[in-house]
């Protein structure tokens, strides 16, 4: 799958949102775990995965979880949370 404008936007929004928080934000796919603050890892995971699990731990995890879920839902990406 090629990186189109929508997928690029997903990657950028996930990365920018994750970097606003102190909490650790990891996206787990069927193949790997990716630090949401790493744009390179995100690009590959969004292109190659069909479902995602968020693992969020830290002092601002409640707010980080809300904002991260919003992005996944906005782009109709299947996601669950383990925090």
Uncertain parts? none
Rg, nearest Å: 11 Å
How many strands, what sense, and barrel or not for the largest sheet?
Answer: 4 strands, mixed
The tally of beta strands, per DSSP, is 4
Query: Which H/E pattern describes the elements?
Result: HEEHEHE
Could you describe the 3D structure shown?
It is a single chain. The chain has 83 residues and is an alpha+beta fold. The chain is built from 3 helices and 4 strands; from the N terminus they run H-E-E-H-E-H-E. Strands 2-1-3-4 form a 4-stranded mixed beta sheet, with helices on one face. Strand 1 and strand 2 (33-35) form a beta hairpin. Helix 1 (5-18) packs across helix 2 and helix 1 (5-18) packs antiparallel against helix 3.
Question: Which features does this protein show?
Answer:
4-stranded mixed beta sheet; 46% helix; alpha+beta; 83 residues
